[in-house]
């Protein structure tokens, strides 16, 4: 389900455009590789990541990378909160690469990842000039970085589950596909606001029939859900859609690191996850064929709680009564969800069409009880101390 | 049935669809509302809510004292604010406003302190909203990344005589044998569990509730804004169980004004208790200091509210002959005069009315002089899926003791009223309405938790 496009999404789109433009410029500059033309030289080794200067003017940045180690490496430029500004993978031993980006004034980290693993060997650098962004509490930068790592982890873990689902569809195995369906969505549902911030991925993988625009082809999980549960058949087209779902999810996995994430977007994203529950899951609309709404519900709550827990150290200093209430309401909603667990079902929850009217009201009340104080979290982390 | 010539003050306390409703007697003066500042003026004051409280409390007392001398109410003054503080809660004797949003809540917390904190917060917000002020830090101007404290749809609107009246249902004291908040011993004897009446078809989803708030205003937007914001403040502590919107008041507490008509087209509320009739209010509406022995003593100055959602079978009624319609009510449709009488306010002659006529059955003289104060509203919630108007009367009646008020009255009506063929009671609730909020430090229900 798509949420409203946030300002963060627009910012991310602009950043992507800039990167693309400078990508074109890079080719014509290639000849100037060896000239001392203002490039920052990065020398990657198996246990080092040397940069030729740690301070340079903001604007057009060119990194001239040389891999002098024995392993394939990759180089990243991170903004605070571990947002990827630009990166280049697969730089072989003895080879080099040029990486370019437009960067605003501020502090960054350049990371080399020998063996293309881990968080890398990092160097702090500064792009000088007048920054318009106010300095942020380092605790919040840490929270953003940790949340980004969580989002990445969720995407990484989703792919194998999604492949299991796609493979079953391609094999024409309806029962196996049904079993793998809800589980394949967990990581997505935990972090959906970040995926939605890109604008283009969500409509491809998670759109429902009623969300389609005229002329838009229905793709993604819910189309396959309809085939499996309602039509009870897997067509040749469905098999193609299963492949496409994987392609789109790969795209998501590659891009989450570049998402614009801020403390307020984390807080409001957590609230949006609960809004998803309040508008789509509590009514049974989201999973209208499979009735696996409760496992989406659980994943939405888990994702919201993760964002909250990371922001909590700062929020608790500023609004202790709010975090006390949120702790209580998160515990309450999880206890409520636990009452609907069913160890016999593949996703661990009772089918939503077996949940009665009174119980749905109770779940709805629980979501409101949590989402209302959660809507106050952004204010608690936004205001400078 | 009963006495022949009725006494001149005969008041039919209509229980049923209040159809009987009398036209209020001769021009009685409206409950005088002291002049209060406009919303705009209040906005300018900043934090004027508390100051207003003091003024308002004095105003109510003045209104009660000088009620009979007060200016007639004919010309409503919709922009004004009704005082929030006073000996009794506003919204009972107050001149009936044009619109209603009534909400019943379930209490979700088990924590007594948390419930008390909510009631204090509600009271504060209610005082501000009835004065026409925004709640919290307002609807605009705060942090851009966070939702505003006030939802904002009443910005720029006058107070519109908004009243918020708070009540407590039997289930707050005890539910499923459990003494939920240590209040079991404080349950007033008059807060009974209503008996089942013949013909009831009650939907639990449209009845009951631990707490209620009745919002009345001359502008529906102002009434809805108030309930919406109270519900929002309450999330996590309370949840809306059911609510009802109402329009076209079906009875008034201002007998000089034109008697309103109900959805069956009949005048309703002809003999309702006037908001200025202090004697009748003391006798029939306000709980007396000695009414409750023991735990329920906190109710002195309060009242009891019966709320019934009464569905009207509009289409079949509209196919009913005029004579039958008039026989059912016992009044003529045009003037509202009782059978054999000429004018609406002429005292009815009960023996000459059909024995199953609504007015005859509901008349105080048929019920040992019982009177209740009605302030119900019509409702139309669209259509019901079969194309029938989902409409009727949302019956609201205040009384000193339901055991002498609504219960015997409705028992009689439910058995005999000819109107029953055209109506059905589908929702029901009873609430203890605590006395008024005394001042800025007081709060809804404080006496109960003392």
TrEMBL record, chain A:
Subcellular location: Periplasm
Domain Imelysin-like: 143-377
A UniProt-annotated Pfam family: Cupredoxin_1
Chain ranges of the EfeO-type cupredoxin-like domain: 22-117
Keyword Lipoprotein: yes
Superkingdom in the source lineage: Bacteria
Entry keyword set: Lipoprotein, Signal
Signal peptide limits: 1-27
Cited CDD domains: Imelysin-like_EfeO
Family per similarity comment: Belongs to the EfeM/EfeO family.
Protein name per its UniProtKB record: Efem/EfeO family lipoprotein
Source species: Streptomyces rimosus subsp. rimosus
Automatic annotation (TrEMBL), chain B:
Biased composition (Low complexity): 11-32
InterPro entries noted in UniProt: Dimeric_a/b-barrel, Dyp_perox_C, Dyp_perox_N, Dyp_peroxidase, EfeB/EfeN, TAT_signal
Subcellular location, record wording: Cell envelope
Basic and acidic residues bias locations: 1-10, 333-348
Keyword annotations: Heme, Iron, Lyase, Metal-binding, Oxidoreductase, Peroxidase, Signal
Cellular-component GO terms for this entry: cell envelope; cytosol
Principal subcellular localisation of the protein: other
Keyword Heme: yes
Reactions the enzyme catalyzes: heme b + 2 H(+) = protoporphyrin IX + Fe(2+)
Cofactor: how bound: Binds 1 heme b (iron(II)-protoporphyrin IX) group non-covalently per subunit.
Domain Dyp-type peroxidase N-terminal: 89-247
Obligatory cofactor(s): heme b
Recorded GO MF terms: ferrochelatase activity; heme binding; metal ion binding; peroxidase activity
EC number: 1.11.1.-
Record-stated family: Belongs to the DyP-type peroxidase family.
PANTHER family per record: DEFERROCHELATASE, DEFERROCHELATASE/PEROXIDASE
Described purpose of this protein according to its UniProt entry: Involved in the recovery of exogenous heme iron. Extracts iron from heme while preserving the protoporphyrin ring intact.
Name of the molecule in the record: Deferrochelatase
Source organism of the structure: Streptomyces rimosus subsp. rimosus (strain ATCC 10970 / DSM 40260 / JCM 4667 / NRRL 2234)
């Amino acid at each position: 389900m798509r949420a409203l496009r946030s300002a963060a999404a627009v910012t991310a789109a602009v950043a992507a455009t800039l990167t693309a433009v400078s990508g074109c410029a890079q080719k014509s500059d290639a000849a100037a590789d060896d000239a001392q033309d203002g490039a920052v030289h990065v020398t990657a080794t198996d246990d080092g990541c040397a940069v030729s200067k740690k301070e340079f003017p903001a604007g057009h940045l060119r990194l001239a990378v040389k891999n002098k180690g024995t392993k394939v490496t990759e180089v990243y430029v991170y903004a605070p909160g571990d947002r990827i500004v630009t990166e280049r993978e697969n730089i072989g031993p003895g080879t080099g690469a040029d990486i370019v980006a437009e960067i605003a004034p501020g502090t960054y980290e350049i990371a080399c990842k020998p063996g293309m693993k881990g968080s890398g060997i990092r160097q702090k650098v500064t792009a000088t000039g007048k920054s318009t962004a106010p300095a942020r509490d380092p605790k919040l930068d840490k929270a953003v970085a940790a949340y980004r790592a969580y989002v990445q982890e969720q995407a990484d873990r989703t792919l194998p589950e999604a492949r299991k689902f796609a493979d079953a569809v391609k094999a024409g195995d309806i029962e196996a596909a049904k079993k793998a369906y809800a589980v394949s969505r967990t990581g997505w549902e935990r972090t959906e606001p970040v995926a939605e911030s890109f604008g283009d991925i969500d409509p491809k993988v998670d759109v429902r029939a009623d969300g389609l625009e005229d002329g838009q082809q229905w793709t993604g999980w819910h189309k396959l859900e309809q085939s499996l549960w309602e039509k009870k058949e897997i067509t040749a087209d469905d098999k193609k859609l299963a492949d496409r779902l994987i392609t789109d999810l790969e795209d998501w996995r590659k891009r989450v690191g570049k998402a614009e994430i801020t403390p307020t977007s984390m807080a409001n994203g957590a609230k949006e996850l609960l809004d998803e529950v309040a508008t789509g899951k509590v009514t049974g609309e989201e999973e209208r064929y499979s009735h696996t709404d409760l496992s989406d519900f659980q994943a939405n709550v888990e994702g919201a709680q993760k964002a909250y827990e990371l922001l909590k150290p700062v929020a608790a200093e500023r609004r202790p009564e709010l975090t006390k209430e949120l702790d209580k309401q998160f515990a309450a909603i999880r206890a409520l969800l636990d009452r609907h667990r069913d160890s016999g079902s593949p996703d661990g929850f009772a089918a939503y069409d077996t949940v009665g009217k009174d119980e749905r009201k109770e779940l709805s009340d629980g979501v409101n009880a949590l989402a209302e104080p959660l809507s106050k979290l952004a204010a608690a982390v936004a205001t400078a101390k | 049935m009963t006495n022949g010539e009725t006494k001149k003050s005969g008041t039919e306390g209509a229980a049923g669809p209040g159809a009987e409703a009398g036209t209020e007697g001769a021009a009685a003066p409206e409950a005088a509302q002291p002049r209060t500042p406009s919303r705009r003026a209040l906005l300018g004051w900043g934090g004027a809510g508390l100051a207003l409280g003091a003024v308002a409390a004095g105003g109510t007392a003045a209104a009660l004292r000088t009620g009979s001398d007060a200016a007639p109410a004919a010309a409503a003054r919709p922009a004004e604010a009704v005082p929030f503080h006073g000996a009794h809660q506003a919204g009972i004797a107050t001149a009936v406003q044009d619109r209603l949003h009534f909400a019943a809540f379930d209490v979700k917390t088990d924590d007594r302190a948390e419930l008390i904190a909510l009631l204090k917060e509600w009271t504060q917000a209610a005082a501000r909203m009835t004065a026409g002020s925004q709640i919290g830090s307002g609807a605009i101007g705060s942090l851009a990344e966070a939702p505003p404290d006030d939802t904002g749809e009443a910005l720029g609107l006058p107070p519109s005589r908004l009243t918020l009246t708070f009540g407590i249902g039997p289930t707050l004291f005890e539910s499923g044998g459990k003494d939920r908040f240590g209040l079991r011993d404080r349950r007033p004897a008059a807060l009974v569990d209503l008996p089942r009446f013949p013909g009831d078809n009650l939907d639990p989803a449209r009845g009951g509730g631990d707490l209620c708030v009745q919002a009345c205003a001359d502008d529906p937007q102002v009434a809805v804004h108030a309930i919406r914001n109270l519900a929002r403040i309450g999330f996590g502590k309370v949840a809306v169980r059911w609510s009802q919107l109402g329009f076209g008041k079906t009875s008034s507490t201002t007998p000089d004004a034109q008697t309103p008509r109900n959805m069956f087209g009949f005048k309703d509320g002809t003999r309702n208790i006037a908001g200025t009739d202090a004697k009748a209010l003391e006798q029939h509406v306000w709980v007396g200091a000695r009414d409750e022995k023991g735990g329920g003593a906190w109710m002195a100055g309060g009242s009891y509210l019966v709320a019934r959602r009464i569905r009207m079978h509009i289409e079949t009624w509209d196919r009913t002959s005029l004579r039958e319609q008039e026989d059912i009510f016992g009044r003529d449709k045009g003037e509202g005069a009782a059978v054999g009488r000429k004018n609406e306010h002429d005292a009815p002659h009960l023996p000459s009315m059909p024995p199953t006529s609504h007015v005859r059955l509901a008349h105080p003289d048929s019920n040992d002089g019982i009177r209740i104060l009605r302030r119900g509203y019509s409702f139309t919630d669209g259509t019901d899926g079969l194309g029938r108007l989902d409409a009727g009367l949302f019956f609201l009646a205040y009384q000193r003791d339901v055991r002498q008020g609504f219960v015997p009255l409705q028992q009689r009506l439910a058995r005999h009223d000819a109107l029953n063929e055209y109506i059905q009671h589908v929702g029901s609730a009873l609430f203890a309405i605590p006395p008024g909020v005394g001042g800025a430090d007081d709060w809804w229900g404080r006496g109960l938790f003392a």
